Amino acid sequence: SEDRMSTEDDDQVCLSKEALAALQEFLVEQQLSDSIQEDWQLSQFWYSNETADNLAAEAIEMSKKRIACVCTPSVFQALLRVSPPPSIEYYLFEYDNRFSRYGDQFVFYDYNLHDDIPEKLRNSFDYIVVDPPFLSQECLSKVAQTVKLLLDSPQAKIVLLTGAVMEPHIQILFPALHRTNFEVVHARGLSNPFLAASNYTSKR
Questions:
Q1: pLDDT value, residue 20
Q2: Residue 95: CB partners within 8 Å, gap ≥ 6?
Q3: C-alpha span between 113 and 133 (Å, rounded)
Q4: What are the tens digits of pLDDT across the range 173-193?
Q5: E strands, 55-172, in order
């Protein structure tokens, strides 16, 4: 009968939606399981999952529109895992072109070309988490100039992660930042003690 055909059609629509949802979930899981691994030759020393997840959660909690992950690919991957609300965009500024798989969310970044930032992304981020790739004053200085280009206002929040040996230079190049008690743990361990500094007081 017509009623039965209508019911069968509805069932088919429901099944199609369920199948689509299952497919989307599978693709996300496959993408994450095929996540890019750190490359020490590119000076990549990634955080433990717990550290990356905590940094990602903090970014989502404090941001209202755009998060910039500057040389922090493990934080970017943590954001992919938790999927921030649609109102928050997040981008990775990174030298490693393997991350180009993420399309417009990836921005090729070479700290030596610190002002080579797409115009549409300049002065548009209210939260930045940054880890300069090298423990040198030159690198920190150039990354600091990049951060200034990305900030949308003086009230934008910054979290800087780097070797503790860089603390004297942080006080000069990032005078608004102060050292926090956040413990930075790397997935494969590092002999260099690390610190986290920010320009705000976390609620965590």
A1: 58
A2: 42, 71, 108, 109, 110, 111, 133
A3: 14
A4: 999 999 999 999 998 776 789
A5: 66-70, 89-94, 106-108, 127-130, 157-163
Please provide the size of the chain in residues: 204
Distance, first Cα to last Cα, the chain: 61
64-111: pLDDT as tens digits: 999 999 999 999 999 999 989 999 999 999 999 999 999 999 999 999
Could you tell me the pTM of the whole model? 0.80
Which residue reads 């979290």 in tokens? 159
Which residues lie below 8 Å from residue 109, measured CB to CB, with a gap of 6+?
70, 71, 93, 94, 95, 116, 146
The rounded distance, in Å, linking the Cα atoms of 50 and 3 is 54
Q: What is the residue type of 110?
A: D
